[in-house]
Amino acid sequence: ACVGVTVHTYDPYDFCGENGRTEYYANSNAMKKDLSSQFKDIRDWAFDTFIPVYVGEYGVGRQMDRQWDRDNEIVREYYKFTANHFRESGMAVAAWDDPGWFGIYNQQ
């Protein structure tokens, strides 16, 4: 039998959540250090168990009246770092892209 695990991450929610703040991190280096620490458990678990992990959702959201807060370098760096971190660990990833709070691509 084949087994795989799907996980979602919106951590830290004070940065990633719809009411999050980009100021949560002082800079991108602080963000990368924190995310590496937060992602360590799932990475270690995947290596220890040899069970494939798919990160099926991750992203940065903002309520509709604060969408402008997502258009900055630290948010772009979050997406790049998270995708690369998991891919380098052998995990597949998919950013959550809805037409609302977590929209990445403006279809209009």
Shape, principal axes of CA atoms: globular
Beta strand %: 5-15%
Figure out the total of helices: 3
- Percentage of residues assigned to helices: 25-40%
Total domain units: 1
**Spatial arrangement of strands, main beta sheet:** 1-2-3
Q: What separation lies between the terminal Cα atoms?
A: 45 Å
> Could you give the count of β-strands?
3
CA radius of gyration is 14 Å
Uncertain stretches? none
SS-based class:
alpha/beta
Major sheet summary line: 3 strands, parallel
Tell me about this structure:
- The chain is built from three helices and three strands, in the order βααβαβ.
- The protein is globular, with a radius of gyration of 14 Å.
- The chain has one domain.
- The protein has 108 residues and is an alpha/beta fold.
- The chain has a three-stranded parallel beta sheet, with helices on one face.
- The longest helix has 22 residues.
- It is 39% helix and 12% strand.
- Helix 2 runs parallel beside helix 3.
Topology:
Elements: E1 5-9, H1 13-16, H2 28-49, E2 53-58, H3 73-88, E3 92-93
Parallel strand pairs: 1-2, 2-3
Helix pairs in contact: 2-3
Task: Offer a quick outline of the entry.
The chain is of the alpha/beta class. It has helices spanning about 15, 30-50, 75-90; strands at about 5-10, 55-60, 90-95.
Task: Looking at this protein, list some descriptive labels.
108 residues, alpha/beta, 3-stranded parallel beta sheet, 3 helices, 12% strand, globular
